[in-house]
Design brief:
50% of the residues lie in helices and 14% in strands. It is an alpha/beta fold. The strands form 3 sheets. The chain has a 5-stranded parallel sheet with strand order 9-8-7-10-11, sandwiched between helices. Helix 1 packs antiparallel against helix 2 (59-84). It is found in: Membrane.
C-alpha cells in the first residue's frame, strides 16, 4: 500500500446546519404519516356517512359494504405506495431509500390484500351471498360494468408485481428483470382509475369526493412524471455526464470516473447514490443503483461497482465518452443524517464505496472518525484510506478473512475468540455516543445492526444502506 493519494478537503456548501435539517426531516416524516392516516380516515368517514355501518345488518348488503370499505382503503394505499417510490425529494431526504423501500413494501402488500378482499366481498355480495354464484357474478361484473375489464387487467398487472416482490421470487430474478416487471405497477394503477371514477359511487357522489380523488390521482401522476421522468431528463441534459475512465479495483470490481458540466449544482452529498443508465450497452434503459465512492468535488464523480449481474458486469467494458443518464441523488447515508461530532463507519465488500466517500466528505478531526473495514480477500481503497489516516487522522480497523461463523459478522482474522459485541465495544467504547453509518449486504448488515442495538446505540443515530431490492 502507498500513501501517495492526495485526498481533497470536503467541499463547503451553504446549507442549513445538522440540527435544523434534522428538525425539518422529522417534520416531513410526521406530516407524511399524518397525511396517509387522514386520507384513510376521510374515506372511512364517507363510507359511514353513506350508510356503510347500517348495511352491515344484512348478509349480502354487509358483504358489499365491507367490500366497498376495503376498496376505498386499498385505493388510498395504492396511491401512497406509488408516491413513496416516486423519488419525491422531500420524502427522499426525510426517510432515506431503505426506510422508503420498507414502507413501500408494507403499504403495497397491505393495499394488494385489501384489493383482493374488495374483489371477493363485492362479488360475493352481488351474488346475494351465494358462494356458488360467485364465478358467474364476477363474469357479469367484468363484462357489464364500465371500466371493470380495465380494472381486471390492472389487477393482473399488480398480481405480477406482488408475486415478483416476494423474497423467494426476487432471489430467482436478475435485478434488471425484476426492475422491468416492477414498472407494471404504474400500468396497474392507471388501469384501475376508470373503474373507480365510472362505477364507484363513493368516488363521485359529491363534489368534495370528486375533488379529493381527482386531486389525489393528479398529484400522484404529477409526482411520478416530475421526479421520475422530468427531473432525470433535465439533469441529464443540463450536466451532460460522460464516462471519463474505468479503473479496475480488484477481482470483478471497477471504478467508473465521470465528468460533466456544472456538477457543483447537482446537490449531491458524500455517501448518496444515483440510478445510472449507461448508453450504448445492452439493457441500458434499465437503471442500476450505485453509490458514490468518492466525495463529490464539483468537477467529477466516481462510483465503484462489483460484477453481480449483467448490468454491473458490463461496466468494465464502458468506453470514455459514453453518455450517462442519471436519477438522483438519493439516500440518507450522508452528512445530512449526522447529529454527533464523532462517527463510526462500518462497511463490507463493495459496501465500502459510500463509506469511502463519507470518510472523505464528512467534517471531523483526528480521532473523531473510525472505519471498520470488513473484507474477504483484498481491501478496497487501501491506499486512499492510508492517505485519509495520514492527512485527516482517520482511524481504520481491518476485519479480514471469511466470516468466523454464520451468525458472526467478523472475519476470522479480526478479533480472536471474543464475541462480536465484545470486540465492537473494545474497538469503539464510546459507540453509543456516535453516529454510525452502515453499508453492506443485507444479511451481514442485519447482524451488525443487532450488535449495535445491544451496544446501546439509539436507532435514530444508525444510518443504513443495504444491497437489497
Amino acid at each position: 500500500m502507498t500513501a501517495s493519494v492526495t485526498v481533497p478537503a470536503p467541499v463547503s456548501r451553504s446549507a442549513p446546519g445538522p440540527a435544523s435539517r434534522a428538525r425539518l426531516d422529522a417534520a416531513v416524516r410526521t406530516a407524511a404519516v399524518l397525511a396517509l392516516w387522514a386520507g384513510l380516515l376521510l374515506v372511512t368517514y364517507w363510507w359511514v356517512a353513506d350508510g356503510g355501518v347500517e348495511d352491515l345488518g344484512g348478509w349480502a348488503s354487509g358483504l358489499t359494504s365491507l367490500g366497498q370499505l376495503a376498496g376505498l382503503a386499498a385505493s388510498v394505499l395504492l396511491l401512497a405506495q406509488v408516491v413513496l417510490m416516486a423519488r419525491v425529494p422531500a420524502l427522499e431526504r426525510a426517510f432515506g431509500q431503505d426506510r422508503l423501500a420498507r414502507g413501500h413494501r408494507l403499504v403495497g402488500f397491505t393495499s394488494f390484500d385489501l384489493m383482493v378482499v374488495h374483489v371477493v366481498l363485492i362479488t360475493w355480495g352481488y351474488a346475494a351471498g351465494d358462494l356458488v354464484r360467485i364465478p358467474i357474478t364476477f363474469w357479469d361484473l367484468t363484462v357489464d360494468y364500465p371500466g371493470m375489464l380495465l380494472a381486471v387487467a390492472g389487477t393482473l398487472c399488480l398480481v405480477m408485481v406482488v408475486v415478483t416482490s416476494i423474497r423467494a421470487a426476487r432471489r430467482r430474478l436478475r435485478y434488471e428483470s425484476w426492475h422491468l416487471l416492477h414498472l407494471y405497477a404504474y400500468l396497474g394503477v392507471g388501469l384501475a382509475l376508470p373503474h373507480q371514477l365510472w362505477s364507484g359511487q363513493h368516488f363521485t357522489s359529491s363534489v368534495a369526493r370528486t375533488v379529493f380523488w381527482w386531486t389525489a390521482w393528479a398529484a400522484t401522476a404529477a409526482a411520478v412524471l416530475t421526479w421520475r421522468v422530468g427531473l432525470p431528463l433535465w439533469r441529464t441534459v443540463r450536466h451532460d455526464l460522460r464516462v471519463a475512465s474505468v479503473v479496475p479495483e480488484g477481482h470483478g470490481i471497477v471504478s467508473v470516473h465521470l465528468t460533466g458540466r456544472r456538477l457543483d449544482r447537482l446537490r449531491v452529498e458524500a455517501g448518496q447514490f444515483f440510478l445510472w443508465r449507461f448508453a450504448g450497452r445492452p439493457g441500458w434503459t434499465r437503471a442500476n443503483p450505485y453509490s458514490l465512492s468518492a466525495a463529490p468535488n464539483g468537477r467529477s464523480l466516481r462510483i465503484t461497482v462489483q460484477a453481480a449481474g449483467d448490468g454491473s458486469a458490463s461496466l468494465a467494458a464502458l468506453r470514455p465518452g459514453t453518455r450517462v443518464v442519471v436519477e438522483g441523488p438519493f439516500g440518507r447515508l450522508s452528512p445530512r443524517a449526522r447529529s454527533r461530532r464523532k462517527v463510526a463507519l462500518i462497511g463490507a465488500g463493495v459496501g465500502m464505496a459510500p463509506i469511502r466517500a463519507l470518510a472523505e466528505g464528512l467534517d471531523y478531526g483526528p480521532g473523531e472518525a473510525v472505519v471498520l473495514h470488513r473484507y474477504r480477500d483484498e481491501p478496497l481503497f487501501a491506499a486512499e484510506f492510508v492517505a485519509l489516516m495520514q492527512q485527516r487522522g482517520l482511524e481504520v480497523l481491518a476485519l479480514p478473512g471469511p466470516r468466523r461463523a454464520p451468525d458472526s459478522w467478523l472475519g476470522q482474522g479480526a478479533a480472536g475468540p471474543h464475541a462480536d459485541l465484545d470486540a465492537l465495544m473494545f474497538w469503539i467504547p464510546d459507540l453509543a455516543e456516535r453516529d454510525v453509518y452502515l453499508c453492506g449486504p443485507s444479511p451481514w448488515a442485519d447482524l451488525v445492526r443487532a450488535d449495535l442495538r445491544r451496544a446501546g446505540l439509539p436507532p435514530e443515530r444508525l444510518h443504513v444502506e443495504t444491497f437489497g431490492w
